[in-house]
Specification:
By secondary structure, the protein is α/β, with parallel strands linked by helices. It folds into two domains: about 130 residues, Rossmann fold (3-Layer(aba) Sandwich), CATH 3.40.50; about 190 residues, Rossmann fold (3-Layer(aba) Sandwich). Helix content is about 30%, strand content about 15%. The chain contains 14 helices and 13 strands. Strands 3-2-1-4-5-6 form a six-stranded mixed beta sheet. Helix 9 crosses helix 12.
Length: about 375
């Protein structure tokens, strides 16, 4: 055995430690029966935000379909939501392994972030094909296909005119045809089983998850607490079981809602626990938040309340509908309302209740003893 006989183009090759076939079966490269040649080396740079990372995962489906046997490396700030079974090498942005990336030759390298550090990495990477955003004394498009996404980020007038969804945009940037590829998300089995057992003890009725917050970046997205309370009571009167969702910022409000309505709420959790909890819901009501992206990735029915964003950006995959203020929003991507009170007040609880009934009609739900539902 010599260095020349080592198959460094094998998907099992680690570079510094024994591969799995060698460790488990004693195979060496010269006689290995499971040698798996890498057909393409692909780099994806998508750092954040968490929701944007999730809705970039359809690219994995496309590349695995186009290039069976491809090896995919992904750099991100949110590595805990990346589907590990689909990605060969996951690298945190703050890892020293970034040095490895900038000294590796790829067939395809993509950067879908407009942060300078992400653009500089793509600039430094060696690749036959590059797509997205690079660095040229500032952020710049690699190909003309990336120009529209840059321009809509710079000018509200163009952003408001956009009719393409986020997935359409990133596929176009990568010179790919979008054919309804969906999000990919792993669910921790232990957390899933925990929530399944917990909620099975609580109810046999359809579960509506209510994500009661919208983060601190855009307070204009917030819905009134009294509206949530009214919606919860109406849902309960109809026969739905309500589960309150949220993070640290929503904790106090959720405790108050639990007290006033008796809804299920047991605190806020890690991302993986939160994912597993949403997986137990039959339908989720939310503003534009991380919970929206998680719900879509889990194929949960969704009622999305939106005001300050372009609704064309969101593809709900026929899982629900978007509700917006009737008179429209004057504070596009605004963190404060020019009128002093967010137009979210014009989305009434009765309207949301009707939407829930349309997409999760109780008279079509068959209750099952093993705590699952069929429509």
């Amino acid at each position: 055995m010599n260095w020349e006989s080592v198959k460094r183009d094998c998907s099992y090759y680690k570079g510094h430690i024994p591969c799995v076939p060698n460790k488990q079966e004693g195979h060496t490269c010269s006689e290995c029966q499971v040698y798996s040649r890498i057909t393409k080396r692909i780099l994806i740079i998508k750092l954040g935000a968490l929701g944007d990372v999730i809705r970039t995962t359809p690219l994995l489906r496309k590349y695995k379909e186009l290039y069976p046997g491809c090896h995919i490396t992904w750099i991100s700030d949110f590595t805990d939501v990346l589907p590990k079974s689909w990605i060969d090498h996951i690298i945190p942005m703050n890892s020293r392994k970034i040095m490895e990336v900038t000294h590796t030759k790829y067939d395809i390298a993509i950067n879908l972030d407009k942060e300078p550090e992400a653009c500089i990495i793509l600039k430094q990477v060696m690749a036959d094909e590059k797509y997205g955003f690079t660095w040229d004394n500032g952020i710049a498009p690699v190909t003309p296909a990336a120009e529209p996404k840059l321009l809509t980020g710079l000018f509200d007038q163009l952003s408001k005119q956009n009719t393409a969804s986020y997935i359409d945009e990133i596929f176009s940037i990568c010179h790919l045809d979008y054919t309804d590829e969906r999000y990919i998300l792993d669910v921790d089995k232990d957390y899933f089983n925990h929530w399944e057992k917990t909620l099975k003890k609580e109810t046999d009725y359809p579960i509506v998850g209510l994500n009661t917050g919208a983060g601190q970046r855009w307070p204009t997205r917030q819905w009134k607490v009294e509206y949530w309370e009214s919606l919860i009571k109406s849902l309960q009167d109809k026969g739905y079981y309500c589960v309150l969702l949220g993070g640290k910022d929503e904790h106090e409000n959720n405790l108050a809602l639990k007290q006033s309505t008796g809804s299920f709420y047991s605190g806020y959790f890690s991302v993986q626990q939160f994912i597993a909890l949403i997986a137990q819901c039959d339908l989720v009501v939310t503003q534009v938040t991380m919970a929206m992206h998680l719900s879509l990735a889990l194929d949960r029915k969704l009622i999305l309340m939106n005001n300050i964003f372009n609704p064309h950006e969101f593809d709900l995959f026929d899982l629900g509908e978007i509700i917006q203020p009737d008179q429209g929003c004057d504070c596009y991507f605004g963190s404060s309302c020019i009128h002093g009170q967010s137009c979210m007040q014009y989305i009434k609880p009765e309207e949301v209740l009707s939407a829930v009934e349309r997409h999760l009609p109780l008279d079509q739900v068959k209750l099952k003893s093993n705590y699952s539902y069929e429509l």
